[in-house]
Write a sequence for this structure.
């Protein structure tokens, strides 16, 4: 097994992206578990984006370790290029939705978003990896979460009234009302929430160090299980004072979701990467019985590409009325709206899988 390429990490990334597409594309009335929590609390839907950020932390360590974390011109250019590309594509996705409605200006273009947050976190953690001592990874993550906790406590960060919530007010002052998400009390990818999101990716980076160390796979799995358990228990205890809240990316939410991600990564490493290290004859037999992961690997090797395609495709099909027509066919067969919505979401996942499978079969891996 190559230390720099983990099949389990591709599978985990694919699970996260497939989940993001599934949860984002229900039609009509969806099951509560397929929706984000209303405010405090956590649903399965709230896990997929945090999982992706955690995976990005692991991938950042493994990727930058190839250059031994030297801040060469080439490496810095690659980090800046990827940051700019991610942020720009995120803006384009929002602009595309407005353009289909005939609004080509930027007066109401949302500046924040999923890809924009990914870009900022990737840039921050990459800079830390290149210019700071990795021994202070956990110290930095804890410090960021502590700073953010103080902001939430003294800035009414849990208030659902945007007029008194410091998170909403900072976004309003720096980004402007026309450039914000208005579906909740605060923009879920707002400016201050990026502080805890960076800490989130830092925890993934720390786990990347555990994975990247030269030692037996079993020891790595145990280390991840220990870290994951400590984070889940610690986050659960912290939630009594700072409740789980995806909208504001609360410190307890960071700890619990990172802990669950570490546990799942450890499980996948044990079930997927461990058989891959066995003798060839035995490995072939194992692989034949484990083809289930091919579905997720298709999403994992072109993760961001398929996410972007899914967002653009959903907007385009929705505007053209195709989505409503297909849902109507499904609803005519499945009368209950919630199962019909789930079937539509699954259809949309399979549609994107088909696109990804063509790329996968042709060994086309598009990297941003």
């Amino acid at each position: 097994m190559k230390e720099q390429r983990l099949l389990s990490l591709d599978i985990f990334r694919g699970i996260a992206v497939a989940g993001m597409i599934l949860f984002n594309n229900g039609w009509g009335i969806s099951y509560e578990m397929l929706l984000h929590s209303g405010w405090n609390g956590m649903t399965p839907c709230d896990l997929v984006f945090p999982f992706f950020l955690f995976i990005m932390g692991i991938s950042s360590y493994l990727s930058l370790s190839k250059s031994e974390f030297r801040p060469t011109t080439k490496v810095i250019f690659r980090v800046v290029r990827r940051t700019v590309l991610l942020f720009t594509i995120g803006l384009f996705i929002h602009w595309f939705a407005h353009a289909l409605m005939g609004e080509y200006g930027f007066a109401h273009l949302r500046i924040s978003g999923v890809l924009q947050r990914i870009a900022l976190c990737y840039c921050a953690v990459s800079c830390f990896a290149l210019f700071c001592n990795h021994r202070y990874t956990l110290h930095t993550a804890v410090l960021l979460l502590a700073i953010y906790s103080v902001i939430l406590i003294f800035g009414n960060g849990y208030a659902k009234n945007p007029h008194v919530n410091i998170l909403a007010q900072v976004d309003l002052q720096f980004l402007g009302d026309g450039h914000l998400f208005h579906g909740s009390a605060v923009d879920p990818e707002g400016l201050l929430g990026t502080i805890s999101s960076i800490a989130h990716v830092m925890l993934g980076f720390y786990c990347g160090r555990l994975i990247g160390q030269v030692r037996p796979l079993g020891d790595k799995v145990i280390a991840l299980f220990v870290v994951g358990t400590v984070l889940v228990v610690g986050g659960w205890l912290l939630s009594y004072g700072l409740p789980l809240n995806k909208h504001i990316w609360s410190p307890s939410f960071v700890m619990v979701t990172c802990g669950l991600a570490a546990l799942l990564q450890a499980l996948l490493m044990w079930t997927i990467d461990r058989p891959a290290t066995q003798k060839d004859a035995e490995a072939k037999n194992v692989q034949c019985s484990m083809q289930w992961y091919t579905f997720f690997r298709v999403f994992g090797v072109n993760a961001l590409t398929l996410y972007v395609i899914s967002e653009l495709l959903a907007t385009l099909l929705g505007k053209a009325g195709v989505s409503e027509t297909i849902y109507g066919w499904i609803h005519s067969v499945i009368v209950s709206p919630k199962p019909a919505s789930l079937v539509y979401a699954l259809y949309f996942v399979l549609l994107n899988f088909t696109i990804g499978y063509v790329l996968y079969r042709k060994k086309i891996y598009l990297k941003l």
